Amino acid sequence: MTKTLKVGIIGAGFAAAFHLRSYRQVQGVPLEVAALVDINKTRAEDLARRYAVPKVYDDYRFILDDKTIEVVDIVVPNDLHLPMILRAAETDKSIICEKPLTGYFGQGEPDQKVGATPKKEMLKKVREDLKKVEEVMAAHPVKFCYAENWVHAPAIKKALELMEKCFISGAILEMRGEESHSGSHSEFAKWWRHAGGGAMARLGAHPVAAGLFLKQFEGEKKSGRPILAREVWADGTDLTKTPAFASTKGSPLVTGWGDVETWSQLTITFTDGTKGTFFAADDLLGGMESNMDIRLSNARLKFDLCPVRVCQFYTVDPTPVKDVYFNEKQETKAGLSFPNPNEEWLLGYPQEIQDFMEAIAYDRQPLTGLDLARQVVEVLYAGYVSMEEGRTISIQ
Ligand SMILES: NC(=O)c1ccc[n+]([C@@H]2O[C@H](COP(=O)([O-])OP(=O)(O)OC[C@H]3O[C@@H](n4cnc5c(N)ncnc54)[C@H](O)[C@@H]3O)[C@@H](O)[C@H]2O)c1
User: Fold this and answer.
1) CA of 75 to the centre of ligand 1 (A)
2) I want to staple 119 with a disulfide (CB 3.0 to 4.6 A). Which of 19, 309, 378, 385 is the partner?
3) What is the pLDDT of residues 321-338, one digit of tens each?
């Protein structure tokens, strides 16, 4: 393979920056990030300058029209994923899409009322949308790469190696996963209309995807058939709207949430009867927590993607280190803390982009593709129906 793979990135925000740093680390696949698009062109120009991207646009159709660009990397807000995926597939470009694949963002309701739409209707609509994506992807056989970094993280890769051996005589009986922090500072995250849900859609998408992936992996290793989600039971609320929170003062937690939950729990029952319980919340101080505890019949596995404790630092006065990056969402550097030496690598971002580039260049399936992306959305929205109706919801 000597041809240079040309990539166009849509969106020049937070996630685009770590994608760009990841493209720089790809080995063995000649590639060029040829264009960057953002409706905020100044933002795109600034980022393009920092990463030497030659072309900048303010409309993603320029990337779709460019026949030399083979890969479209979608890192825009969640409500834009679906239309961009469909358009990109129709131009026969391979797709990288950030999590979640899609969601419910309203069908004409006033913006601030979208979250009040019955969740059953939301589930019906997202199922229709997922079917549409599958049909378009079947008609345009390009690669679909689902940017779920957890599955590509070194800790999970090691877990796969260990579990494969344990599966000879054992089974995953239970998984407990979590992604939580003190709350997004993006105003868009506070409204269903833009985010497609609250903590479970925004943060829970990661552990849920990892849990689905691991049970699928177990089934395929044992019998060549995936073990899938059979039903979902969930609970959720906005803890910052409770009387308890109202009686407090000076909390560093993000407040001002609109129509989304800031605390959620979702339990999956798999087709082999085993369980996965996943937490996602905006109620956590001290930096981001991304972890999973996996209980097998013959072993136990725990991983912490975040925080990692390979480096310890203690100080009474954090002023000298105020410009040093420690960890995502860490409120203070005073006292004992654990600065992360390479957060992006430990979270699996460069490995994910490496896998996608190889999958596209060498015509193989990526580790995380459309099937996983689709299952995550189905499970999350079944979870939202369960939160609203207080009953267990079956997965199709
Ligand atoms: N995998 C992860 O850990 C992770 C982390 C953060 C975000 N994400 C995902 O990445 C995506 C982007 O999130 P973010 O945090 O980078 O958001 P962001 O707000 O920082 O950036 C989004 C950018 O998209 C631009 N944009 C909006 N509409 C556009 C359009 N029509 N055309 C072109 N550009 C447009 C905005 O101007 C903005 O610059 C989301 O889907 C999010 O879920 C994933």
Assistant:
1) 5
2) 385
3) 999 999 999 999 999 999
